[in-house]
Amino acid sequence: MKPKKKTKAPIKKASSGNGKNAVSTKPKEQHQSFPIVSIGASAGGLEAFEQFFAHVPQDIGMAFILIPHLDPGHASMMAELLRRVAKLKVDEAQDGMKVQPNHVYVIPPNKEMSIFHGAINLETLKKTHGLRMPIDSFFRSLAEDQGEMAIGVVLSGTGTDGTLGIRAIHGAGGVVMVQTPDSAKYPGMPASAAGTGVVDYILPPEKMASQLATYKRRSAKKAVVSVSKDDLLRKILSLVRSQTGHDFSLYKKTTLSRRIERRMKVHGIENISDYVRYLHENTRETQLLFKDFLIGVTQFFRDPGAFEELKKTLLKYLEGAPEGGVFRAWIPGCGTGEEAYSAAIAIMECLDELKRDMKVQIFGTDIDVESISQARTGIYSKNIVEDVSPDRLRRFFVKEEDSYRVKKEVREIIVFAAQDLTKDPPFTKLNLLSCRNLLIYLESEMQNRLLPLFHYSLTPGGILFLGTSETIGKFADLFEIRDRKWKIYKAKKVLSSVQEETWGTLPWTAPVPALSGEGEEVKKPKEIDIIPDAQRTLLETFAPPSAVVNEKGEILYIHGDTGKYLAPPRGRPNWSVFEMAREGMKSELRSGVHYVLTRMKERRYENLKVKTHHGYHPLNLTVKPFGPAKETQGLVLVSFEEIVKEEKRLPDRKSRKPEGQMERRLRESGKELAYTRETLQATIEELQAANEEAKSTNEEMQSTNEELQSANEELESSREELQSMNEELVTLNSELQGKIDLLSQAENDVKILLDNTRIGIIFLDNDLRIQKFTAEAKKIFNLIPGDIGRPLHDIRSNLLYDGMERDTREVLATLRLEEKEIRSKDERWFLMRIIPNRSGENMIEGLVLTLTDFTEMKQAAEAINQLKNDYQAASEFAESIVETVREPLVVLDEKLRMLSANQSFYKAFAVPKEETEGSLIYELGNHQWDNPDLRRLLGEILPRNSQFSDFLVDHDFPGIGRKRMILNARKIVPSKGDAKAMILLAIEDVTDKNVGLKGR
Questions:
Q1: What DSSP line would sit under 821-870, residue for residue?
Q2: Known catalytic residues?
Q3: Residue 929's domain is classified under what CATH number?
Q4: What would the pLDDT profile of 790-847 be if each residue is shown by its tens digit?
Q5: CATH of the domain at 106
Q6: Which residues pair with residue 433 across a beta bridge?
Q7: Do residues 135 and 212 share a domain?
Q8: Cut 0.70: pTM above it
Q9: What domain range is 404 assigned to?
Q10: 854-903 pLDDT, tens per residue?
Q11: Which of 58, 435, 483, 1000 gives 20 to 30 Å between its CA and that of 157?
């Protein structure tokens, strides 16, 4: 499993730092100035995506990255389907693509996606089946890369994917939105995300776009919390302390300011003084701000490389630890318990590898009571498969429906408690203290108090585990570096004077010297080591005969003369104290050892009658635990105290009984007692045999249970794969349903189009059998629905055409288009086209026969041809008339350009036809026609529908001499309605005539 990048958050808890990641206290450099919104969804996600993007404006100024659960074995149509409703540009993400605003990027199938410096990174999935958490993975990457510019949205889906990812985004200072569970088609993912308590907005998809736009608008007006405004900041911290009881005054001000800024942006408050007033009026906001101060990202085995190095350090440390000892660890700021359980698993793995038997005690503390309560349950979502290896899941976790529970053997070694590290007393005599990514959020004053505290808590040689951004600072005399990269230290053994100097600031650790009456410190005399000799002498003089036995009853050590009480059994040598015990105390000895081992309390039996070679001797038997040290746990001390007989005083004569009767009663009582003891011994032996059988049965049941558990784990794994596959199939089904809707709409559109075009279409297969046909084709071929599947040549048509079968087979053979005009029996004309039907793979799948009714077009064409012929004849007739006129005639357009002229004009003025037609009348010759009055008159003819007559022009034309002409002009309109009006100009030569007209 690929290790995930560390996700950081901008602030830590007052006693937090191990299970919760954070970003640096310095503002994160942004790679772009626009937010990136990542939207995760699973089953029912397509519908939610469409509802969301239908309301997103085109210029929102954000980028959107979609992470749906896709089937890795099928191509995705998500991008294509979203283009129908989204106003933004929708693309499938590609490796290395730079994220741009107002764009939507969809993760491709069979890919794992991350983001680095605003660019998309894609990697092929290493496993295509089983439980995968692509939303959590990308959310963490987005939080790491974008910090406060990251926005996470969780929409419809089953399971819990996205729950851990939104913690990372919220911890990095980003914004989290979740779909309201009641509006989701599958509420599993939204409900799980909403239960984290880190969600900023819970809205239906159609209202999220407006909220995003509002948040972006508020962010543009940056809310500034100036560190210089200490009075307002103190007021906020005072409100938090008064309601929660926790003081954050020794946290770094810049860190607190960013968390306050975030809350101000959520509410649209720009001034910190207004926010202080808002806190006074809304006590719930104070609790939410307190949560923001504490919130961080927590996960199992955060920074896998750090835990690998920690295990190496622990292995070396545990190799020198005494067998049967106690290993104590403290994880302050454990959050919801992931860091504490990770440390416990690492320690247990080291002990298993070394095959060492040690008792482990771990203390997990945190300032957040709710987090501690969750940690005690040991229940986590199935998303932890991203951080915990399959081997560890099988070894230390139990699968429960949609969650994992830490096994009892791990939970039992951890004690969770609420504690404020800044003011509560610490745990001591520790072998490991893990406090990661907390010190960097505290002022130097508090750091200088906590590091000596950590040294005080650790035993000499104990391990201190800090975050990668933390150091021991000026306390190098207290700790020795073991790993510089992962910040693992070893506590040094220091002199008492150094201890007093460094621990003097800690009230619960300050030494209290013994003083004399005059106030002077009392000096102790030099001690002489007489303890071993004294103990040996006292044991030999006063200690009764004793034996030290283990939990199986095997004798490990014998003190004094125990021959009266213990004797070797017959047969093979046996060092069992139960077998060696003499008659009269076997049952008491066995029950006493069992009592001590189970309850760890002393048991004493008085005045037992023990049978020896010289009769019965009275005895007091004492059984008790042996030694307080952890190394001697499971050992029992058995002491035999012989009762010394005192001189018996003779009874008074009146009370004396006959000696014979007394002896008889004693003998009978002895027989009864012996019988009772034999019966009890037999019962005990039967009970032992039954216990052995029960033990054997229990071992068989345990073996069976392990097999069943293994089978259950395999079934759970299969169920997870099926669930994941089901989510992918639901998403794929949604995409296919969307595609079907598109195809259905397209089919309806095509049907409407074909029906309105009045084109008869028949689809034929390769055997020329009818597959489909339009309504217009039914009129031509008299088709009914039952004709589908029949050969086309079996159908009688209304066409006067008998080459249909021949032409269709020819087209099918040659794959060439055939086009013909065909007449029907009712005198209608059709344009028939026979076209090969090619599939998307360029395969021939039959023919398409189209029949287009162009009867009206043909009639119109015939009419046009007739009109052309008539017009041609009329034109020729008119042209012949014009040519027979002896006076020059000219036709002008609306711009006074020469359209045409008769031969008399060209002959009279000696100009070529090519240079005349298309030229302005004023440009003819040497501009002899450029007369202002003539121009004005000609210009008024068309607009005013006027005319003029007898306009005299007297001009010397080059090459032909001087001419006097009378001009007459009028408007002519062609018979065609859309033709433009023209001007007919008639010219009469009156050079040789005496005309009394005057030129104008």
A1: EEEBTTS-EEEEEEEEEE-TTS-EEEEEEEEEE-HHHHHHHHHHHHHHHH
A2: 42, 69, 161
A3: 3.30.450.20
A4: 888 888 888 888 888 888 888 888 888 888 888 888 888 888 888 888 776 667 888 8
A5: 3.40.50.180
A6: 330, 464
A7: yes
A8: no
A9: 304-503
A10: 887 777 777 777 777 766 666 666 566 666 777 888 888 888 888 888 88
A11: 58
